[in-house]
Structure formats: structure tokens, C-alpha cells
């Protein structure tokens, strides 16, 4: 009888200790980024070229949100799938994670048959990313491709991704997926900067500007540190404006480095110098 009572008392004590024990570490939300060179991480030897996914990580409370940037230079939706870059992400996805999906630059490059993806195949590939992300109870977000720096003679920014941005928006509407229209917002931002000042955003370097490019470099597609940060700010503004679950709740406190202007689109964003 005494032995039985001792066992019962010990069992109750264990239950109480378990009930009041400190909870385990909170699961961090992973934000996977899939896309092309405008988003990708860059090695030191191509600095100051910077993908906008690189500064994005600084906008989140890293105790709650971890950015895992899987974007790769030169990839279209087709080659990202063909090279088996997507499947490991699907396998790793946990409930409540995010996938930011931004392609288009290389899909539309019909002069590069190794990466070109016709619009209807692009649509199918985006649909696959969305469906398989949701299949893991994670959140897909579609982003239109960021504008290239291209002005007409009157100084008006030109739309450079008409067909592929349209398909992206259509897939977002079809599947009721959040859409961040970086194409439109980045055009508005670049227009605010104008023909000359917008050179600060893109990898336009004169000879001697940087040791990585001793002969200069002319690139109206990829970004400097400033340009990448400005593009990341556009995305963060939409995370807040659209109240994306989890992400909007765990933005880092503003600092001089990661401060986001109150505008939620490029039209209202004011140009600054580095």
C-alpha cells in the first residue's frame, strides 16, 4: 500500500513539473526566397553588386524569422526546377513558413534558349510553386520582376516585363495568393530618381570606381547596395500594408540601416543619395 502511494505521489509530482516547465524554444519561421540574380546573394568578388534578398534579412527580428535566400543567378522558373533547386525546399518546408517567388528576367530571355520559358510554361511553373507550397501548409507570395533601368528620350521609365508581370498577377489572382508588384513599384521609384540619379541604384560604374571593375561596368538590371536596399524596402512596405501573417508581426525595430519610409509604393518614395 505504501509503495503504491509513493508511486502515485511521484507520478503527480512529475505531471506538475511538466505542466509548469518552461516551454521549448519557439519555432522560427523560415522565409525562403526563390528567383534570379536580382534577388540572389552575391559573392564578394562582384561587390558592389547586391541582390535585394541580401538586405531583406535585416528587416526582421531574427529570433522569429530567418531568411533563406535560394535565388540563383541566371535561373528561370524552368531551370530552377530542372536543376532540382525547388524539391529540397519543398521537403524542408514547415507549416507557417513562407516562399517568396520572383522570376521573369530569365524566363523572358528568348535570346537565351538554355533558360527561356514561354509565358504559358511560366504560368504552369508558378502554379506548381504555389500549389506545392500550400501543400506543406506554408505561405506562397508572388512577386513581379523588378524593372530594368530603361528610359525613353523624354526621360520616362519604360515597362520591361509586360507579359511576365501580367502572368504573375494572373496566377496570384487565380490562386488568391498575395502579390507584391515590384515591377510597378520599382518603375515608380526609378522614375522618382530620374535618368541621372537612378544610376545610383544600378551597377553603373565608371573606370576606377571600384577595384572589382577596373574598366567600369554598365548594368541596368542588377543593383548596388543602395538599389538593393531600396527594393527590399518596397517589399517590406507591402509586407506591412498587406499584413502578411507572422512576417508583419516580426519586423525588426527601425534603425538607420533598415528604416522603411512610410510609403508603401515607389510613387511616394523619395530619392536619397547614399
UniProtKB/TrEMBL annotation:
<feature type="region of interest" description="Disordered">
    <location>
        <begin position="253"/>
        <end position="274"/>
    </location>
</feature>
<protein>
    <submittedName>
        <fullName>Rhamnogalacturonan acetylesterase</fullName>
    </submittedName>
</protein>
<dbReference type="InterPro" id="IPR037459">
    <property type="entry name" value="RhgT-like"/>
</dbReference>
<comment type="similarity">
    <text>Belongs to the 'GDSL' lipolytic enzyme family.</text>
</comment>
<dbReference type="Pfam" id="PF13472">
    <property type="entry name" value="Lipase_GDSL_2"/>
</dbReference>
<dbReference type="InterPro" id="IPR036514">
    <property type="entry name" value="SGNH_hydro_sf"/>
</dbReference>
<feature type="signal peptide">
    <location>
        <begin position="1"/>
        <end position="21"/>
    </location>
</feature>
<keyword id="KW-0732">Signal</keyword>
<keyword id="KW-0378">Hydrolase</keyword>
<feature type="domain" description="SGNH hydrolase-type esterase">
    <location>
        <begin position="34"/>
        <end position="229"/>
    </location>
</feature>
<dbReference type="InterPro" id="IPR013830">
    <property type="entry name" value="SGNH_hydro"/>
</dbReference>
Amino acid at each position: 500500500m505504501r509503495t503504491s502511494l509513493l508511486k502515485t505521489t511521484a507520478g503527480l509530482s512529475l505531471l506538475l513539473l511538466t505542466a509548469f516547465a518552461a516551454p521549448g524554444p519557439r519555432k522560427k519561421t523560415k522565409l525562403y526566397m526563390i528567383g534570379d540574380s536580382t534577388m540572389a546573394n552575391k559573392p564578394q568578388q562582384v561587390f558592389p553588386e547586391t541582390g535585394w534578398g541580401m538586405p531583406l534579412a535585416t528587416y526582421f527580428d531574427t529570433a522569429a524569422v530567418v531568411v533563406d535566400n535560394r535565388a540563383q543567378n541566371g535561373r528561370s522558373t524552368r531551370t530552377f526546377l530542372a536543376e532540382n533547386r525547388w524539391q529540397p525546399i519543398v521537403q524542408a518546408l514547415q507549416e507557417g513558413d513562407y516562399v517568396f517567388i520572383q522570376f521573369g528576367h530569365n524566363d523572358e530571355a528568348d535570346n537565351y534558349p538554355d533558360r527561356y520559358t514561354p509565358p504559358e510554361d511560366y504560368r504552369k511553373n508558378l502554379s506548381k510553386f504555389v500549389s506545392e507550397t500550400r501543400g506543406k501548409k506554408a505561405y506562397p507570395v508572388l512577386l513581379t520582376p523588378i524593372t530594368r533601368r530603361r528610359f525613353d528620350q523624354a526621360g520616362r521609365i519604360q515597362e520591361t516585363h509586360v507579359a511576365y508581370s501580367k502572368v504573375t498577377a494572373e496566377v496570384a489572382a487565380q490562386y488568391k495568393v498575395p502579390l507584391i508588384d515590384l515591377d510597378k513599384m520599382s518603375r515608380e521609384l526609378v522614375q522618382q530618381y530620374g535618368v541621372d540619379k537612378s544610376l545610383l541604384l544600378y551597377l553603373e560604374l565608371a573606370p576606377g570606381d571600384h577595384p572589382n571593375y577596373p574598366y567600369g561596368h554598365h548594368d541596368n538590371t542588377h543593383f548596388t547596395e543602395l538599389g538593393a536596399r531600396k527594393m527590399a524596402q518596397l517589399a517590406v512596405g507591402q509586407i506591412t500594408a498587406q499584413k502578411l501573417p507572422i512576417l508583419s508581426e516580426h519586423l525588426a525595430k527601425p534603425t538607420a540601416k533598415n528604416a522603411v519610409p512610410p510609403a508603401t509604393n515607389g510613387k511616394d518614395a523619395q530619392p536619397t543619395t547614399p
